[in-house]
């Protein structure tokens, strides 16, 4: 890395000695700035090795919805650690996983009844795609292997998931033409787009397994918002053309957009839903792919070939399931959705002045997500560093500066975040 030979006595030994052995995410290792050494977290704060505290504006990629080191989750994980950290899920079952499956299906709308656990969002998407293709195979329909996905979408970094990302904005442009070919088109956000999608589905439905979308907010592909109407149209189109509908709620699930799940805002039940990120309150890796009875029934057979042949080694990890159950307790006991509504109001108020700043294309807020879209960001690295100078952790990408903090962030801390955004955008640091 550019600066990793720099001598800095303040850096801890583990950092100096380990850095040259690590490969970082989404980073050109030759030119990427060094990562910040973190020694602790608490509430909405990240503590650096030199003692500085940063207010976290993005809750560790949107996972830590209750803030860091939440005591109820910690205690649940500690209890589980003493009893049983992990057992394989093949031929064995345990209380935390079965309780979590029951609770998730009770929370989700409609008859999303069967939970398949995995260990990351991308794998949850892979499982959803495999389920969708095999749903048709099990029903005797061969050749239905194509997915319809949407411009601006992002669904993960594994091969199958990459292939349904926006080819340009979904981070995988280099792989264009090398991945399985799917249909990436416009969301039905206007009558014209809806008619075009209807025509496309009519033409191609024999080859299509499912439509896949991030409902209400397309996250890593550019923090783009659409209305609940779009989801109702997608449900109607999927039904009309007899296709499955997959909602990827890995970002939007667990309150982020203002309702427990984004699909609730539209009154729409998908055939398959994927969850991860805030599922464990940001403590441990866990994901779930949940299918309706209609999907599950296509696998229910005396024929072993109709089984879903999938089983990640660490699926339904007991520690992660205990954390997820504790996270659901907090959603039940504490006013999380009210906190999201308060964050939404504050973000709308405090980011509004950015609208009139030069280089600002759009300011938008939904739930606990605040976005300032710029015409361009010239030097992403410099902008990220300037946020650290303001004692906040904000990680702009593309031409997007956004906040997606813990729901428990206090108003003063949120104001520090919005002040930093307004200051740096206003100064034209980008
Ligand atoms: C909507 C969506 N789907 C899938 C993923 C992939 O999840 P993971 O990074 O856990 O593999 C992400 C991650 O940002 C996401 O936002």
Task: Give me some keywords for this one.
430 residues; alpha/beta; Aspartate Aminotransferase, domain 1; Aspartate Aminotransferase, domain 2; 2 domains; 7-stranded mixed beta sheet; 4-stranded mixed beta sheet; 14 helices; 16 strands; 36% helix; globular; binds pyridoxal-5'-phosphate
What does this structure look like?
With 430 residues, this protein is an alpha/beta fold. It has two domains: 12-69 and 336-426, Aspartate Aminotransferase, domain 1; 71-333, Type I PLP-dependent aspartate aminotransferase-like (Major domain) (Aspartate Aminotransferase, domain 2, 3-Layer(aba) Sandwich), CATH 3.40.640. Helices cover 36% and strands 17% of the residues. The chain has helices spanning 13-18, 59-62, 71-83, 95-107, 121-138, 159-162, 191-204, 228-240, 262-266, 293-297, 318-333, 336-351, 380-389, 411-426, and strands at residues 38-42, 45-48, 53-56, 112-118, 146-150, 183-185, 208-213, 217-218, 224-225, 244-248, 272-275, 287-292, 360-366, 369-374, 392-393, 400-403. Strands 4-12-11-10-7-5-6 form a seven-stranded mixed beta sheet, with helices on both faces. Strand 5, helix 6 (159-162) and strand 6 (183-185) form a beta-alpha-beta unit. Helix 4 (95-107) crosses helix 11 (318-333) and helix 12 (336-351) runs parallel beside helix 14 (411-426). It is globular, with a radius of gyration of 22 Å. Residues 1-7 have low confidence and may be disordered. It binds pyridoxal-5'-phosphate. Pyridoxal-5'-phosphate binds at residues 120-122, 125, 154-156, 214, 219-220, 248, 250-251, 276.
């Amino acid at each position: 890395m550019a600066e990793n030979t720099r001598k800095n006595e303040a850096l801890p030994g583990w950092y100096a000695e380990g850095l040259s052995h690590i490969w970082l995410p989404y980073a050109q290792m030759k030119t990427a700035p060094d990562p910040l050494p973190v020694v602790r977290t608490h509430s909405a704060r990240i503590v650096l090795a030199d003692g500085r505290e940063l207010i976290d504006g993005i809750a560790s990629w949107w996972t830590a919805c209750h803030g860091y080191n939440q005591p109820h989750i910690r205690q649940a994980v500690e209890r589980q650690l003493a009893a049983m950290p992990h057992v394989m899920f093949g031929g064995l079952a345990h209380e935390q996983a079965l309780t979590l499956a029951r609770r998730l299906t009770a929370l989700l709308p409609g008859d999303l009844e069967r939970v398949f656990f995995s260990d990351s969002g991308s794998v949850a998407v892979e499982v959803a795609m495999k389920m969708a293709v095999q749903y048709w195979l099990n029903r005797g329909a061969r050749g239905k292997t194509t997915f319809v996905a949407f411009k601006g979408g992002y669904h993960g970094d594994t091969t199958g998931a990459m292939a349904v990302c926006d080819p340009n904005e979904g981070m995988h442009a280099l792989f264009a033409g090398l991945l399985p070919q799917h249909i990436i088109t416009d969301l039905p956000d206007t009558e014209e787009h809806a008619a075009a999608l209807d025509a496309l589905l009519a033409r191609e439905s024999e080859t299509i397994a499912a439509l896949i979308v991030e409902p209400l907010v397309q996250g890593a592909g550019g923090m783009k918002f659409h209305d609940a109407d779009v989801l109702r149209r997608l449900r109607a189109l999927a039904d009309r053309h007899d296709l499955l509908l997959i909602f990827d709620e890995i970002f939007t699930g667990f309150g982020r957009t203002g309702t427990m799940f984004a699909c609730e805002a539209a009154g729409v039940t998908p055939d398959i839903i994927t969850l991860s990120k805030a599922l464990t309150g940001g403590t441990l890796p866990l994901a779930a792919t949940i299918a309706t009875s209609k999907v599950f029934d296509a696998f229910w057979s005396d024929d072993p070939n109709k089984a879903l042949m999938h089983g990640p080694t660490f699926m339904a990890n007991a520690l992660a399931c205990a954390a997820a159950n504790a996270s659901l307790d907090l959603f039940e006991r504490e006013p999380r959705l009210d906190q999201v509504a308060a964050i939404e109001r504050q973000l709308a108020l405090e980011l509004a002045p950015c609208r009139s700043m030069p280089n600002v294309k759009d300011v938008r807020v939904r739930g606990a997500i605040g976005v300032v879209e710029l015409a361009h960001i010239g030097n992403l690295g410099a902008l990220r560093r300037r946020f650290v100078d303001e004692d906040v952790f904000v990680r702009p990408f593309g031409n997007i500066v956004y906040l997606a903090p813990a729901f428990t962030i206090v108003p003063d801390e949120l104001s520090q975040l919005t002040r930093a955004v307004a200051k740096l955008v206003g100064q034209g640091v980008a």
